[in-house]
Amino acid sequence: MRLLLMGPPGAGKGTQAVDLATSIGGAHISTGDMFRENLANETDLGKLAKQYMDAGQYVPDEVTNGMVRNRLAEPDAAAFVLDGYPRTADQVVELDDILASLGAKLDGVISLVVEDREELVQRMIKRAETSGRADDTEEVIRHRQDVYDAETAALVPLYRDHGILHEVDGIGTIDEVAARIAAVVDSLRG
Ligand code: ADP
């Protein structure tokens, strides 16, 4: 199964994506994690991404798209949960192209819905106590919400139009949200 997990920063994507990938037997592919790994290993890609990430901005599409194209061509990516990609309209087009070139398509898009911006910001401020992420200051956290609203929120109706969107309430405990996601996956299995 090939799934996208979408949602604003702080909605709990990363947490849920790991468990979801295990449950479908697929790879968890997080562009944020991939950039952070490159940063930790001080690769050229990491150095380039850092300036954008630290400011809460998106890494340019040319860079991100190439990274995802390579990752999705790896043998373990026959089934996957994609987390944090696509984030722009151009990335949506690119992803369709990547998948078409692999003879594959998405089975579903799960959107974690948390309407309350303050709830998101407070969750992330709490996470900042332990994350050690340079982009987890309150100012950058708020900026990341703005960037999400400006660039990424519009992808949700786009996938609704494609008929593959499944919205899941992202308010509740981790287990409650996981159970809602599992119900969607069951419905996709048919
Ligand atoms: P969050 O926890 O805010 O959802 P992620 O861990 O997914 O963030 O990503 C962290 C940062 O990595 C983003 O703020 C951005 O700079 C960069 N990034 C991740 N995915 C993408 C993408 N698809 N396009 C551009 N930049 C990305």
TrEMBL record:
<feature type="binding site">
    <location>
        <position position="31"/>
    </location>
    <ligand>
        <name>AMP</name>
    </ligand>
</feature>
<feature type="binding site">
    <location>
        <position position="144"/>
    </location>
    <ligand>
        <name>AMP</name>
    </ligand>
</feature>
<dbReference type="InterPro" id="IPR033690">
    <property type="entry name" value="Adenylat_kinase_CS"/>
</dbReference>
<feature type="binding site">
    <location>
        <begin position="10"/>
        <end position="15"/>
    </location>
    <ligand>
        <name>ATP</name>
    </ligand>
</feature>
<dbReference type="GO" id="GO:0005737">
    <property type="term" value="C:cytoplasm"/>
</dbReference>
<comment type="function">
    <text>Catalyzes the reversible transfer of the terminal phosphate group between ATP and AMP. Plays an important role in cellular energy homeostasis and in adenine nucleotide metabolism.</text>
</comment>
<feature type="binding site">
    <location>
        <begin position="57"/>
        <end position="59"/>
    </location>
    <ligand>
        <name>AMP</name>
    </ligand>
</feature>
<keyword id="KW-0067">ATP-binding</keyword>
<dbReference type="GO" id="GO:0005524">
    <property type="term" value="F:ATP binding"/>
</dbReference>
<comment type="similarity">
    <text>Belongs to the adenylate kinase family.</text>
</comment>
<feature type="binding site">
    <location>
        <position position="36"/>
    </location>
    <ligand>
        <name>AMP</name>
    </ligand>
</feature>
<dbReference type="GO" id="GO:0044209">
    <property type="term" value="P:AMP salvage"/>
</dbReference>
<dbReference type="InterPro" id="IPR000850">
    <property type="entry name" value="Adenylat/UMP-CMP_kin"/>
</dbReference>
<keyword id="KW-0963">Cytoplasm</keyword>
<keyword id="KW-0808">Transferase</keyword>
<feature type="binding site">
    <location>
        <position position="172"/>
    </location>
    <ligand>
        <name>ATP</name>
    </ligand>
</feature>
<protein>
    <recommendedName>
        <fullName>Adenylate kinase</fullName>
        <ecNumber>2.7.4.3</ecNumber>
    </recommendedName>
</protein>
<keyword id="KW-0418">Kinase</keyword>
<dbReference type="Pfam" id="PF00406">
    <property type="entry name" value="ADK"/>
</dbReference>
<comment type="pathway">
    <text>Purine metabolism; AMP biosynthesis via salvage pathway; AMP from ADP: step 1/1.</text>
</comment>
<keyword id="KW-0547">Nucleotide-binding</keyword>
<dbReference type="GO" id="GO:0004017">
    <property type="term" value="F:AMP kinase activity"/>
</dbReference>
<feature type="region of interest" description="NMP">
    <location>
        <begin position="30"/>
        <end position="59"/>
    </location>
</feature>
<comment type="subunit">
    <text>Monomer.</text>
</comment>
<feature type="binding site">
    <location>
        <position position="91"/>
    </location>
    <ligand>
        <name>AMP</name>
    </ligand>
</feature>
<feature type="binding site">
    <location>
        <begin position="84"/>
        <end position="87"/>
    </location>
    <ligand>
        <name>AMP</name>
    </ligand>
</feature>
<feature type="binding site">
    <location>
        <position position="127"/>
    </location>
    <ligand>
        <name>ATP</name>
    </ligand>
</feature>
<feature type="binding site">
    <location>
        <position position="133"/>
    </location>
    <ligand>
        <name>AMP</name>
    </ligand>
</feature>
<keyword id="KW-0545">Nucleotide biosynthesis</keyword>
<dbReference type="InterPro" id="IPR027417">
    <property type="entry name" value="P-loop_NTPase"/>
</dbReference>
